[in-house]
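Our collaborator T.R. sent over the components below with a one-line note: 'Predict the complex.' Nothing else. No constraints on interfaces, no templates requested, no preferences about which chain binds where. So this is a plain run: every listed entity goes in together, and whatever single assembly comes back becomes the starting point for the next discussion.
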Amino acid sequence: MGRYKVLEDMAFADSAFEVEGQDLNDLFETAARALAELMVEPATLETSIERPIGLSADKVDLLLYDWLSELIYRKDRDREVFPEARVRVSGTGPFRLDGTVRGGVIDRTRTALRADPKAVTFHQFVVAPVDGGWRARIVIDI
Amino acid sequence: MTVATPTLRTRPVGDCIWEIPPSEKPGMRVPARIYASEKLLGQMDRGVFDQVTNVACLPGIVRAALCMPDGHWGYGFPIGGVAAFRTDTGVISPGGIGFDINCGMRLIRTRLTESEVRPKLRELVDALFHAVPSGVGAHGFAQLTNAEFRRVMVEGAGWCVRHGYGWPEDLEHTEGRGCLSGADPEHVSVRALERGLNQLGTLGSGNHYLEIQVVRPGGVHDPQVARAVGVDGPGQVFVMLHCGSRGFGHQIGTDYLRRFDQAMPRYGISVNDRELACAPFRSPEGQAYFAAMTAAANTAFANRQVITHRVREVMASVFARDARELGLSVVYDVCHNTAKVERHDVDGEALEVLVHRKGATRAFGPGAPDVPDAYRTVGQPVIIGGSMETGSALLVGTAHAMAETFGSTAHGAGRTMSRHEAKRRVHGGRLVQEMEARGILVRAASKSGVAEEAGFAYKDLAAVVDVLHRLDISRKVVSLTPIGNIKG
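Returned assembly:
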């Protein structure tokens, strides 16, 4: 399972993460978890829905940008947040993501709210292979 | 992964004016200017210097890339960044506007005094918290069809007034009368429409707020101008709101940042920071973004207008008096995340430029275009939001701002520490209790969000305002102190 940490010395008013995964699938799944945990306390979200998601992009970093943007869009449109994801990232350019996300609808009477992300930024945005996996740096505008 | 930033030589060129010459970074077309006292300059993080010099490299920029005294590390432009680009050869960049297009401030006066409000303050704050939804997943009370929402994109706050969500005179006291020209829903994605459709009348989260404020003794700095903008004196209660275009604007920013990122090679443009992705203003991409961005700006005016309507309803109910009897008129509504076509004097020539203001407020002086008749002799009101603990300020624009900063000034206090660091230092629940003991009632959708917005995470607003006053890019009129706060 991948891991992420908050980068404190970037973009004071926003939220920056460094995400690591053993492969691209793990990286994308971990980035989705980081985003969900930025929005709500996952333990207070009743996991009740599963949605299929399919995306494609010319480059792997744009695929990650589109992936997180898709999750932010669904948060606003449907009030749905997805702490869990199972995805398969394939291709060498263009890249494709297929998978499912699991989560729940924000219930304002029981879900502990955190921040309301506006967008994924390109500020210092990096997706790169590292020893033993992949790493990404992401700044979310909140 | 750390980002190495070389030290950039920053030299004083006037009282509270610092300049980084073009020789300091390859590609700089103009100098970078930072407006700050020595102390505020010392509090600025390294991102400010790196980002403002990156802005100075963009095609078509004129005179200088500017950063206001509340500047801090943003994405693309620094927060507090101002830059003007020739409309014929220059660019437009979503990173110079922000995802929250037309995030802005609105100030509403009342005829109420603190002694009248205090006994009902908890009831008022609770009622406002319920009437103006905030935080993640909030939907507004106004249920619009797709066709109606498209009208909002074009008509802005005027649509609200025509549908009973405001008074005609509200428009007169809104920047651009609450409706910027050039909006075109054809350049807005379905996704943007879907994100924004249910959010009219919502506050958002982060540093957005709805606040009950009071003028304290000693808070009136310029009695004559204060009277002109509707401030009677100490004890008077005001309502201030800070919010923007919500998910609608955020999606437009996302869509076009992605599009510009891929379009730049076609125009031979390269940027130091990918978040500065841009396109020539006169290109199809540039014009499409301008039309969509303006649509978002108009929905933000509409959002603040609908919230104003809800504030009037709530206050009329709580105080059992008609909103007009309570004197709930709009002092002014001003943007701080926009790009607007304006005419400014550049090297002795009246040049049409696209002024990007990101976390920077328009500050037009007396007699300037678009300043309401009521304020023509004193200048356009400038509303500067501080932290929820320390208060906010009302200033007016100046003639000197027109000459020095393209008619621009600061927008807030400016952060000095990360959100994470603020949460580590204080628990949101405890901060709410401490603030209540000091007479400030807080209702928030997110406790962690309260901690992130603690007063100690921001610069001293008075120090920022003093620099603006010293620079004469805006003049301080009134300080406002919070007594009730609704947050996301």
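Summary for T.R.: The radius of gyration of chain A is 14 Å.
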